[in-house]
Amino acid sequence: MNKQKRIAAIHDISCVGRCSLTVALPILSAAGFDTSVLPTAILSTHTGGFEGFTYRDLTEDIKPISDHWQSLNIQFDALYSGFLGSFEQIDLVADLFDTFRTDNTLVMVDPVMADNGVLYSIYSPEMAKGMAKLCAKADIIVPNLTEAAFLLDEEYIGENYSQEYIETTLKKLAALGAKKVVLSGVSFEGEKLGAASYDSETGSISYAFNDKIDGYFHGTGDVFGSALLSALLNNFTLAEATQIAVDYTQMCISLTQEAELEKRYGVCFERAIPDLIKRLGLFSE
After folding, report:
1. Rounded to 5 degrees, what angle do the CA atoms 285, 221, 166 make?
2. Please, how many CA atoms are within 13 Å of residue 220, restricted to the half-sphere of its CB?
3. CA distance linking residue 95 with residue 38, whole number of Å
4. Mean of the pLDDT values across residues 225-231?
5. pLDDT category of residue 284 using cuts at 50, 70 and 90
C-alpha cells in the first residue's frame, strides 16, 4: 500500500448544520486521507438560518495544539484552512503554515468569510484584509465571488459579470501570492453553475459546470473545497479536480432536493460520498 497522506483541517465545528469540520472530516477521510483537525471555534449551530446560536472562540488553543504537534514531529501532506474565529487566528494559522510546510506540502486556503455580497456576522473589513495576507501563503485558494471582492478590496458586482471579468479576477487573486485559484459560484448561463480555475504557472484557465439548482444551500462551499482537495491529493489536475468538486456538490444539492430536507441543515453530502469515491478511482463496481 502506498503511504497514506495526512491532512490538517483547520475549520470551526458547527454542532448542528453540515458545514466546516462536520463536512471536511468525513469527505477527506472517505477519500482515503488521515485527517487531523484543529477547531477554530465551536458553535451550537452554523450561523445561517439559526438564531441564538452559541459561539466559543478557540484562539487560545491553536498555538498549544500546534506546539504539541511539532513536539511529536507530525508531518502533513496538506494544510487546509477554512473559517477562522478571530482576527488573531489569521497570524496563528500563518505561523502554523510556516511550521509544518515542507516542499511536498499542499497549502489550501478557503477564505470563508462572506456570501451574496455580505461579510459573515463575526467578520470585519479589517479581518478580510488579514485573510488576503493568509491567502498569500497558500498554494491554492478557493474563494467565492463575494470573498474574491473582499480579498481584492473591490466592489461586489453581483451576477453582472462577463467572462473577461472572471478571468481578470482570477489573475488578480493569483497576484496575492497563491499559484492556483479556484473561483466558485461562476455562471454565464442561467441553467449552469460551477467554478473557474487558474494555474498561474501554466497560464491555463478552465471552467467546470453542471446543472444549476435554484435556492441557497448552506455548507456547499465546504463540500466543494473538501472534494477539490480530495481530488488534488489523488493526483488529478486542477481542471479535473474542479470538475469533480462541481459535480459532487451538485449531486449533494440534488439529493437534498429529492429528499425534501430543510435547507438550513446543509446538504445531504453523505449519500453522495460513494459517487465521489468512484470518481476518485478508489474503487470500482
Report:
1. 110
2. 26
3. 14
4. 98
5. low
State the pTM of this model: 0.96
Domain spanning 6-277: CATH superfamily = Ribokinase (3.40.1190.20)
Q: Which helix (H) or strand (E) holds 6?
A: strand 6-16
Note whether 50 and 264 are within 8 A (CB): yes
All three cell numbers of 100, joined, read 509544518
3-class state of residue 149 by DSSP: helix
Q: What is the pLDDT of residues 148-174, one digit of tens each?
A: 999 999 999 998 899 999 999 999 999
Phi, psi of 237 (to 5 degrees): -70, 170
Domain range summary for the chain, segments of one domain joined by +: 6-277
Q: CA dist 73 to 63, 69, 101, 106, 233, Å?
A: 15, 6, 12, 18, 22
Asked if residues 242 and 228 have their Cβ atoms less than 8 Å apart, the reply is yes
d(CA 111, CA 133) in angstroms, rounded, equals: 11
Distance CA 80, CA 147 (A): 17
3-class DSSP state for residue 55?
strand
CA atoms in the 13 A half-sphere facing the CB of 143: 33
Asked if residues 128 and 150 have their Cβ atoms less than 8 Å apart, the reply is yes
**CB within 8 A of 191, min separation 6: which ones?**
211, 212
Mean pLDDT for the stretch of residues 261-268: 86
- Nearest Cα residue to 83 out of 115, 116, 117, 106: 115
Three-state SS sequence of 164-215: HHHHHHHHHHHCCCCCEEEEEEECCCCCEEEEEEEECCCCEEEEEEEECCCC
Average pLDDT of the chain is 94
